[in-house]
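Help needed: design a sequence for this.
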């Protein structure tokens, strides 16, 4: 819950900075924090997916659809937080924030995509898709 509260606080601070017409350095600082929080959430979501990938062999058929549905929900949450990051980077006050976070974002997308594909291609995922 702390991550959610930190993200909410960062978003509110960004809105306030933009609304109050503060100077560019304040905007950049608020954008940086408002971008860092969803990136932190994305890291947690990717780590969770990687742990689920490790746990997949122990999942039994009766709960397989719930397990795979949960993975899709986590994947959707990842997409949502990354959209928030990308939206922040489009802001005119973002400065070099795009460059400073690029490698991190590329690595998060790579890890997410590799893990999701691995989970979908395992016997459990293939079996459920064939039903």
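Sure. Designed sequence:
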């Amino acid at each position: 819950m702390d991550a959610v509260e930190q993200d909410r606080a960062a978003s509110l601070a960004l809105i306030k900075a933009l609304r109050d017409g503060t100077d560019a350095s304040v905007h950049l600082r608020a954008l940086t924090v408002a971008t860092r929080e969803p990136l932190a959430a994305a890291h947690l979501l990717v780590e969770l997916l990687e742990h689920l990938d490790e746990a997949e062999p122990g999942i039994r058929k009766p709960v397989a659809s719930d397990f795979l549905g949960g993975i899709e929900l986590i994947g959707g949450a990842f997409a949502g937080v990354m959209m928030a990051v990308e939206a922040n980077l489009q802001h005119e006050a973002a400065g070099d924030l795009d460059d400073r976070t690029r490698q991190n974002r590329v690595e998060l997308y790579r890890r997410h995509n590799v893990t999701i594909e691995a989970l979908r291609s395992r016997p459990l995922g293939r079996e459920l898709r064939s039903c």
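Residues 38-130 form one domain.
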